[in-house]
Amino acid sequence: MVGAILDTSVLIEVLDAGNAELLDEILARYDGLLIPWVALYEYLYGHAYVGSDVRERKRLVEELGAVVWLDQRIVLRALGLDVGLSKNGLRIPFSDLLIAATALEAGGELVTLDERHFKRIEGLRVYVPRPARNPPH
């Protein structure tokens, strides 16, 4: 088993949509959970925008897994990815570059519900879970 790096889409699905089946699947599949700082930021931004208590949302994310903060290795990896993709006429959002660079540097598998941009990155291991969503109550 390897560690999982969680994309923003997974944070939203688990914490906001309450998809317990997805969380159970991830916890059964991986040894540990890591959250890139930029995924934390994107998640909190959405809550701040609508006026939610971001301190409580931040606490929930931090309980889910360890936040990986930006360091020089991630900066250089993201830069290499960005330049390489750009030279091939491919661009992806900066936040996705940072999430991918974090996953590559951590040696884990990126767990996302939206692989569209990530599949362009060579060497990045991506897992897209497809569990049934919790039925509405």
Kindly list the characteristics that best describe this protein.
137 residues; Rossmann fold; alpha/beta; 53% helix; 6 helices
Report the total helices. 6
Instruction: Give the helix/strand class.
Output: alpha/beta
Rg over alpha carbons? 15 Å
Give the distance, in angstroms, between the N- and C-terminal Cα atoms: 34 Å
Total strand segments: 5
* H-E order: EHHEHHEHHEE
CATH superfamily: 5'-nuclease
CATH fold description: Rossmann fold
The neighbouring-strand order within the major sheet is 3-2-1-4-5
- How many separate domains make up the residues? 1
Mean pLDDT: 93
Level-1 CATH class name? Alpha Beta
> How would you describe the oligomerization state of the chains in this entry?
single chain
Strand content bin: 5-15%
Shape descriptor reads globular
The CATH level-2 architecture is identified as 3-Layer(aba) Sandwich
Q: Tell me about the largest β-sheet.
A: 5 strands, parallel
Helix content: 40-55%
Poorly predicted spans: none
Short description:
This protein is an alpha/beta fold and 137 residues long. 53% of the residues lie in helices and 11% in strands.
Describe it for me?
The radius of gyration is 15 Å and the shape is globular. The N and C termini lie far apart (34 Å). The model has no long low-confidence stretch (mean pLDDT 93). Helix 3 runs antiparallel to helix 4 and helix 5 (72-87) crosses helix 6 (94-106). The protein has a 5-stranded parallel beta sheet with strand order 3-2-1-4-5, sandwiched between helices. The protein is 53% helix and 11% strand. The chain is an alpha/beta fold. The chain has one domain (4-127): Rossmann fold, CATH 3.40.50.
